Amino acid sequence: MSDRRGWVAVLSVALGSFVLVLSEFLPIGLLPAIAADLHIGVGTAGLMVVFTALTGAIGAPVVTVLTSRVDRRIVLWSLVGLLVVADLLGALAPSFAVLLVARMLLGLCIGGFWALGAGIASRLVRESAVIRATSIITGGVSVATVVSLPLGALVSSVATWRLAFVIGAALGVVALALQLVLLPRIPSVQRVRFGTLGELLRVPRARVGLIATALAFIAQFSAYTYVAPYLQELVRVSPTVTTVALLVFGVAGIAGNFVAGVALGRSVTGTLAVTKTVLALAVVALPLLAWSLPGVLVLLVVWGFVWGALPLGLQTWMSQAAPSASDGSLALFVSTIQIAISAGSVIGGLGVGRFGIAFDFYLAGGIALAALLVLLSLGRRRIAVPVGGPSPEAC
Question: Which residues lie across from 382 on neighbouring strands?
Fold first, then answer.
């Protein structure tokens, strides 16, 4: 495959990642409208987020195993097509039960897509450009995070919440059309079994990566879930300023994602160590600087920047931990992320409810430091080996 065709194919996969995350996040800002229209409580409507994440955690390994012999492009086409169906079902849902089914289908798409799509760059471009190509695919996440909040606010002010799902379905059709045209044949190169997933846990470097990933995402979402209340209650800014601050965070995340593509080429461990350290310091400093809006905005830029780099760095670690089982390692990686997102939101909620927002941010910083200690104390001890190979030797 020519370099040009490979990069065009990468862009089509990146659009798929953008639509998936946009579909996941768009309804979050519309929970009150959904609750009012379907005659349920806002807390009940929030189950949409939990159901999507938990289904994604289950979907990642299941899709990986069941499709391990299928051409990768056919799997990606099927997942994006299912995304369109899920969003259309959500737009037409007559009840909350049907809406939950639609969100579970979306979760299946998210889990399956990230278990396969995030590692597909190595099949589309030359080896020296894999990290940069992967950063483009994961960049779709950062862009969708930035776009989803203001787009959701716009939808809420001018139309019904169902339009958000229609927008997701329409963009999904565009992504599917482009992938049908641009993706080359990507034959399966390995058979993945459920037993293979278990074997990965016996690879020390993969095990360390999963623990570090879980702690990093728990830290992130225990704080980020409550960043809007932090801005409004501790910093005492208006909803408009809150939206601007979240946009600043998202734009910084886009920049961090692409800078990470360069930094990881030099040192994966070093990049992760720096980003985890800065993440912990920024989150802990936010309550301390709540009296200064300029200081808060600077910290949000720093936080967004390092968070934009972390997922790509952790994914690169997992891909290198067990190269001969990259599909399986990415499946466990995605499941870990989805479970950690739910756990982080719950832990953050408990912290805020019992001790307040400031305590929640201190707690998140402590969890981020724990992720750093796991990486530094355990991550350098052993080298990666193929699953089923000899026992790893000490470095």
Answer: 394
